[in-house]
Amino acid sequence: MKQVIFSILIVSVSLLCFSVSDTYAWPRGKPVTPYGDSCPKKCVDYGTCNTVMTDYDAEKALKDYYNRKGLSVMLEKRGERFIRARIYDEIGIVDIIIFDRRTGRIRSIY
């Protein structure tokens, strides 16, 4: 009897594990930041900027980008070239990104 219950349990767990098709870190099932997206106002689509953005310009660009999506931004680390930020919705954190101030690229690292 124990072997039958154990076998049914193993089969059930296996079916649950293999039936999951896509797993996302964010709750809505679609990415908040598309891979390799760029800042539309300060840089061109191919990831080149005229100059390296200042901290103020980069923060403003990120906040503008995510505010249009109904999200808020909290900056974590500011380096010479990269800025790490957390992206929040009304429930909680939905993404962690790195913003390249030289190219204008936004990359999700979550």
Question: Can you describe what's shown?
Answer:
With 110 residues, the chain is α+β, with helices and mostly antiparallel strands. It has one domain. 28% of the residues lie in helices and 25% in strands. The protein has two helices and five strands. It has a five-stranded antiparallel beta sheet, covered by helices on one side. It is elongated, with a radius of gyration of 20 Å. About 7% of the residues have low confidence.
List the main descriptive attributes of the protein structure presented here.
single chain, 110 residues, alpha+beta, five-stranded antiparallel beta sheet, 2 helices, 28% helix, elongated
Summarize the structure.
The chain is of the alpha+beta class. Helices cover 28% and strands 25% of the residues.
User: How many discrete domains?
Assistant: 1
Instruction: Going across the biggest sheet, name each strand in turn.
Output: 1-5-4-3-2
Q: How many H/I helical runs? A: 2
Order of helices and strands: HEHEEEE
**Total beta strand runs:** 5
Approximately what portion of the residues adopt beta-strand conformation? 25-35%
Structural class: alpha+beta
- Average pLDDT metric: 75
Low-confidence stretches: 19-26
| Shape type | elongated
- C-alpha Rg (nearest Å): 20 Å
What percentage of residues falls in helices of 4 or more residues?
25-40%
Taking the alpha carbons of the first and last residues, their distance comes to 45 Å
Largest sheet: 5 strands, antiparallel
